[in-house]
Write a structure and sequence with these properties.
The protein is 37% helix and 20% strand. By secondary structure, the protein is α/β, with parallel strands linked by helices. Helix 1 crosses helix 2 (54-67), helix 8 crosses helix 11 (343-357) and helix 13 packs antiparallel against helix 14.
């Protein structure tokens, strides 16, 4: 079992384990050994978001790779999908993104990409963890073979051109006023430029990072500011990214939220009509709304569900040969354009449909009726196992009985935070969700006492 890696790389509070300088150094050394193959000069690209702790983690990783004889290309603050793209473009052996995505600035994380630009499999991550437990002395590069570090000054520009190339060449964004919440994160420079260069009028907010304001009451998890900006400025649509811009949240001209499931449905429908859709469906997760599944069925398509995590979505997409997948949270993966979730590229696909239709976002982007869904989080202390308690198991069974087969219950641990996530999907989901939440809270309080 992996202990260091979670559902999306390594993550934790900065300057504590596992996000200490020492562990980051060892992680880089172990990863370098895992990916050094052949006699060529090996290289790694490293990007980061705008967290203060990036100044701690970036040099620790750089030192580890250099010690093992790998050259390092530093990208600076860029979105996660830019790291994945540049890993392939620069023919690097490895890509690294320093980010904790939507988490507050106190946290940070490390996401790893193979030379193909895809996130690593569970088996590879487990192999890296095993290498970390071994001594490195015999594998250190001789003094003459140490790696070198350089900075790629045009990393942002390369990604901007890549993102723009995903937009249909016969369309432009002229006439659209777009509110854009950059979450004070990795896309604070590139996202406004992509939209502006394609012709839009851009109202950018939360685009002044200071190291500690990333995701702070802004971005994809906090849409109130975006909704206000859309309404106050009479925008046609609003786009919110998270800290590393691998996910998005959309708001229509009325200030109503457009879910990630609606985005998937819109793109899938458009691509099916244009002949771009590969395979017989799209990939979602166990959290994808039942309404999306029903809509896909109406198109003669399938919704294949995976565990939560865009990495698992991508693995299923590659296995099936399909080119659309994502999560209701706003991770949208379009493998025609990216190897990981890309909030900017996904937004451009939606904007293309708005422009092509000549209609309002509220008319274009809500194309199926979602089944009411409630998601509640319950925190627990380290070492607790509330889902193992019989009282909690009984509550889940009782909640499922309340739905009488006309809905879904999903209870799972978060892969990145000490939270139990309770999801209930039904015409009236609240009572069943509350039953489970209360049982978990009582169990957690009892263990803590």
């Amino acid at each position: 079992m992996r202990k260091l890696f979670g559902t999306d790389g390594v993550r934790g509070e900065a300057n504590t384990e596992p996000m200490s300088a020492e562990t980051c150094l060892k992680l880089a050394m172990a990863t370098a050994l895992q990916f050094k193959r052949g006699e060529h000069r090996h290289s790694v690209v490293i990007g980061k978001d705008t967290r203060l702790s990036g100044y701690l983690i970036e040099p620790a990783l750089t030192a580890g790779f250099i010690a093992m004889g790998m050259d390092v290309t530093l990208l600076g603050p860029v979105p996660t999908p830019a790291v994945a793209m540049l890993t392939r473009s620069l023919r690097a052996d490895l890509g690294v993104m320093i980010s904790a995505s939507h988490n507050p600035y106190q946290d940070n994380g490390i996401k790893l990409f193979g030379p193909d630009g895809f996130k690593l499999s569970d088996d590879v991550e487990q192999a890296i963890e095993a290498r970390m437990a071994q001594p490195f002395a015999a594998d250190l590069a001789p003094s003459a073979d140490l790696g070198r570090a350089v900075r790629l000054d045009d990393a942002a520009g390369r990604y901007i051109e890549h993102a723009k190339a995903s937009f249909p060449k016969h369309l432009r964004l002229e006439g659209l006023k777009i509110a854009l919440d950059c979450a004070n994160g990795a896309a604070y420079k590139v996202a406004p430029k992509v939209l502006w260069e394609l012709g839009a009028e851009v109202i950018a907010i939360s685009n002044e990072p200071n190291g500690t304001n990333i995701n702070a009451n802004c971005g994809a998890l906090h849409p109130d500011n975006l909704r206000a900006a859309v309404l106050e400025n009479h925008c046609d649509i609003g786009i919110a990214l998270d800290g590393d811009a691998d996910r998005l949240l959309l708001v229509d001209e009325q200030g109503s939220i457009i879910s990630g499931d609606q985005v998937l449905a819109l793109i899938a429908s458009a691509w099916q009509q244009s002949g771009k859709l590969k395979g017989k469906g799209i990939v979602g997760t166990v959290m994808s709304n039942l309404g999306l599944e029903r809509f896909m069925t109406s198109l003669g398509l399938t919704l294949e569900r995976t565990a939560v995590g865009d990495r698992y979505v991508v693995e299923q997409m590659r296995s099936s040969g399909w080119n659309i997948g994502g999560e209701s949270s706003g991770h949208v993966v379009l493998t025609d354009h990216a190897t990981t979730g890309d909030g900017i590229v996904a937004a451009l696909q939606v904007l293309a449909q708005v422009v092509a239709s000549g209609q309002r976002a509220s008319d274009v982007c809500k194309i199926f009726v979602p089944v009411p869904q409630v998601l509640k989080n319950v925190s627990y202390a380290k070492g607790q196992q509330p889902l193992e308690a019989q009282s909690v198991k009984d509550a889940i069974v009782a909640a499922e009985a309340m739905l009488a087969g006309a809905g879904r219950v999903l209870v799972r641990k978060s892969g990145t935070e000490p939270l139990i996530r309770v999801m209930v999907e039904a015409d009236n989901p609240e009572p069943a969700a509350d039953l489970i939440v209360e049982a978990i809270k009582k169990q957690a309080a009892g263990v803590a006492a």
